[in-house]
Amino acid sequence: MKRFGILLITLLAVPLAGGAQTSPGFYDQATLSYWQARYPVSTKKIFDVFVQYLTESEKRSLAGIQLKFPAYGGEDLRNDPLSFYASATCPYPIVTLPIQSLKFLDDLSVAHAWLWKNGHSLGSIADYMAVLKYSRSEARRVPPLEALQIPTNAVQDPEVDALSLRFFNSARASILAHEMGHALRFCAAHRAESAGATAEASRHAEEEADRFALELMRRTATIPMGMVLFFQASAHWLQNRWDFQSEEDWEAYLKKDATHPLTADRLRTLAQRVEQAAYSFAANGTDPGLVRSLGRDLAKLANLLEDPEAQLSIVLAARGRDTDTLGPPPGRTQPDEEQERPAFHGSYAGDYVRRLPFEQETLNARVVFERHGDRVTGYFDFGIGVGTLEGRIRSETLYFDWAWGGTAGRGTFKDTDEGGAFAGTWGYRDSRDDGGTWAGRRL
């Protein structure tokens, strides 16, 4: 495409060190070298599109921006799979997009597409990130596709290939636009940002970069689907309030150490902006309802970050697992169409309602049952991790025990449509109904 003379773009693809040693990060040197010849080119194309939609003022402020693609974000970031950042080196700010982090994000996109296409729980991606964060295992860092047992030929499926590319391109676009927002703030008045002067300043910087990123994506009608995937992974990888003993310790971390703090308030602000601008994001013909659902996903993620019980469950579950236990269950998740489909067998989706002290929370939930006679086992996923259930059917009613992270309880489901749907209640510990309600319909 025609280059804008006012904008100087420098691509710095930093060569990898020689030798045949294995990388201490997530990928070996051969893999990183292969993608270092590709990701800068395709990312530059996304950048070139963004350039066309910058205002004249933004072009002037970003005239000296450089995109840098090292193998890693730095020696101290080799085990950080999501280390994207901008540096205040005005008038030539640098946006750093490490090859390892791009490859990791690419793999998460493939995993998401393959799991969705094949009816498996998407919560296993969140579980994987939590295991990387909390597991006490000293095992090497296992890349996403290997840990989640995604077939090596997954992208040979055209639907998986197309969907994963949409997620990856959208995620890259949101990250690039966010870091451009930081660079714009650095250089608009030729001043450097005071890194972490206060926790409030750090949060404000992220919100300003988020605002710019969403605005640029809105201008280009880029659906923020990959942005949601990125934040779902980040929410289970980055430090949050419940990783600290007190609010004071958390605030001190935000002030001194956090470079990209992810807070519930930040996610709620993003959620509101996505929902409010749904029609602009969908200008390319996408259903605005899909965009609004992405906003709701971000709002649910915000609630997760503020829920100490959920966070404790995530920690306990992750510490009891390693990456060898994260793959999808063997076999099909749904019976063949020509076979009889009894009640409580196969995949169902519906509403999981949790009663809170002064309100109730509704989440979209998927349940996969496997029935053998009157016995049923299965797993469920409502976007913040995977739980298990097991029970027995009596008089068309399933009485079950459930477990999720460090919590457990019981429940009762009734068949409401000759196997096509169920409805019931669930509870904590020995109760079957003090937690909330649950309903689903066969997929």
List keywords for this structure.
19% strand, globular, four-stranded mixed sheet, 443 residues, 2 domains, Porin, eight-stranded antiparallel beta barrel
Order of helices and strands: EHHHEEEHHHHHHHHHHHEEEEEEEE
- Number of beta strands: 12
Q: What structural class should be given to the helix and strand makeup?
A: alpha+beta
Shape: globular
Unreliable stretches, pLDDT < 50, 5 or more residues?
1-10, 16-23, 189-196, 331-339
Total helical segments: 14
Strands across the major sheet, in which order?
Answer: 5-6-7-8-9-10-11-12
What is the arithmetic mean of pLDDT?
83
Please report which band the strand proportion falls in: under 5%, 5-15%, 15-25%, 25-35%, 35-45% or over 45%: 15-25%
The number of domains is 2
Separation, N- and C-terminal Cα atoms: 45 Å
Task: Summarize the main sheet.
Answer: 8 strands, antiparallel, barrel
Nearest-angstrom radius of gyration?
23 Å
What fraction, in percent, of the residue positions are helical?
40-55%
In short:
The chain has 14 helices and twelve strands. The protein has 443 residues and is α+β, with helices and mostly antiparallel strands. A hairpin with a 7-residue loop joins β11 and β12.
